[in-house]
Design a protein that fits this description.
Layout: E1 2-8, E2 11-18, E3 21-25, E4 27-31, H1 43-48, E5 54-57, H2 58-63, H3 67-72, H4 76-80, E6 86-89, H5 92-97, E7 102-105, E8 108-112, E9 119-122, H6 124-134, E10 138-140, H7 152-178, E11 188-193, H8 199-210, E12 216-219, H9 228-238, E13 248-250, H10 256-263, E14 269-271, H11 274-280, E15 283-286, E16 289-292, H12 312-316, H13 319-327, H14 331-357, H15 361-374
Parallel strand pairs: 4-5, 4-14, 5-6, 6-10, 10-11, 11-12, 12-13, 13-14
Antiparallel strand pairs: 1-2, 2-3, 7-8, 8-9, 15-16
Helix pairs in contact: 6-7, 7-8, 8-9, 11-14, 13-14, 14-15
Amino acid sequence: MYKLLKKSGKVRRGQFKTPHGVIETPVFMNVGTLAAIKGAVSSVDLKEIGCQVELSNTYHLHLRPGDKVIRELGGLHKFMNWDRPILTDSGGFQVFSLSGIRKIKEEGVYFNSHIDGRKIFMGPEESMQIQSNLASTIAMAFDECIPNPSPKEYVVQSVERTTRWLKRCKDEMDRLNSLEGTINPKQMLFGINQGGVYEDIRIEHAKTISKMNLDGYAIGGLAVGETHEEMYRIIDAVVPYLPEDKPIYLMGVGTPANILEAVSRGVDFFDCVLPARNGRHGHVFTKNGKINIMNAQFELDSKPIDEGCQCPTCQNYTRAYIRHLFKAKEMLAMRLCVLHNLYFYNKLMKDIRTAIDGDYFEEFKNEKLHDWNEK
């Protein structure tokens, strides 16, 4: 259940009550695709760096170790030793990215595993069954992610199919939640708004899915090649047509600046592989913008990545040492940078919530954008 605590213009501050605890929003979900954060960061670390929600991937976990294996072991929370909320995405985006080896039909999608090439079918019911086996807190509806740009006629057909699939997802989830033996019978379902960069299609779709009384609503199919301006235009168009009493999730976004801009447009939930991926390559976020720790200028730098940062990395290690670890190809380099970047994102969200509570979000946003741009 979503409780809107405060609204200032479009900016929202809320709490989302789930079977695995209350999520303070706006929130950034830390991406652990295969039930692990890439870069040797554990679920114990996630608590230390202030993570509220972990996100795992239906498609990847279905392939390995297999959702039935995870069910056998008591569900994803038990499997990865995480007692806070988990969101699982539906597999739709991964299937979309396999464009060369998939076939979309009304019943669902036929595709080949990227691991061993075996044939797999996934439709709305299968996606819900897999997510029920994983027993995540929040399951995402199975949708079609379309390439951008796509012809308008195709987008219309695709969105209509996504709506039909959403109804099937809801029916199947209701059925699964009523079964004896379901690990998480209170599993929640978020629907996904699609429509490419066409405002009229997006708005119609938002109106349609809003009537379905789901637990939350996501804006999908963005951050796939369109400009930031186009993305913000679509968010501005869609948010007013989604229910105010439900959380709004912008999928796969993004940079710290993207997050601030989307919060100012009414978005509550975010996820992105960016902080972990950047960290694994030595690109780290600081209050003055992003730096590449491998640059020669840091060879003798005895300062932490970001002065004043309270993350485990900055509290204990210098830029010079971390640069050395990368040059020596030590795994610890990735771990320390991913820890720092995820801490940076989780702390940013905490500061955003504090700024909304204190009625100074606009000033906070402008100050941050100015600091990052200066760099």
